[in-house]
Each structure stands twice: as structure tokens, then as C-alpha cells.
Amino acid sequence: MDDNKLKDYLVGCNDKVIPSDESTINVLLICLDSSTMGSFLSYILNKYTGLFSNNPFVPAKEYEKVDYIILSNCVEAHLDSKLSLMFGMQVITLILLFLITIKK
Questions:
Q1: In angstroms, rounded to a whole number, what is the distance separating the alpha carbons of residues 46 and 49?
Q2: Which of 13, 19, 82, 94 has the most CB atoms around it within 10 Å of its CB?
Q3: What is the largest CA-CA distance in the chain?
Q4: Phi, psi angle pair for 84, to nearest 5°
Q5: Radius of gyration of the chain, Cα coordinates, nearest whole angstrom
Q6: CA 54/CA 80 separation, integer angstroms
């Protein structure tokens, strides 16, 4: 399930970074297709078990070094022959930023 993927991404990021300080931040960037992004939004924002709820499915201690989560559907873009990103006329690229403000 995708909620387990989100947990794996959060815990994996936490394991790989040093604690942030006044000159650094730790950002987890997750690139998804649009249909999967809706699921990830639900896992983050669900009022009962989301990351910002009183009963999160991932305890905040497990990702305490992650300051921001960015969700993007940029995988729906593609590269042209000059390796520049080209976006299809019907694809709206979304970038959603979440500041982790939970006291850990």
C-alpha cells in the first residue's frame, strides 16, 4: 500500500540526513503521478490518522529530522532532445509543500 511507501520514504530520509540547524533544512521530495498524489495527500492530511493528526500512522519521532515534505507530479513531464523539461498541454504540474510543525 502507498501509506507504507510514504512511511518508508519518511523513515529513510530521516536515517540519511543530519539534524537541521539555522543554516540547513531537510526536505523530502516525492515525485508521483497525479492519481497517486491523491492517496499521498490523504495519508498526510487525514484528520484521524494523517501525519498532522493526534494519532498519526507514522509516529513523529520516526521522521524527526524531516523539516518539509514536497509532493510533485513532475513525473508526468518528459525531457526533450536537449534534456529540457517539456510539459504536455493537458498536464498541470503540481508542487505541494508541507512544513512539518509537529513538536517532536
A1: 6
A2: 13
A3: 48
A4: -100, 145
A5: 15
A6: 45
> pTM for this structure?
0.76
SS3 annotation, the chain: CHHHHHHHHHHHHHHHCCCCCCCCCCEEEEECCHHHHHHHHHHHHCCCCCCCCCCCCCCHHHHCCCCEEEEECHHHCEECCCCCEECCCCCCCCEEEEECCCCC
Residues 99 and 68 sit within 8 Å (Cβ to Cβ): yes
What pLDDT was estimated at residue 102? 53
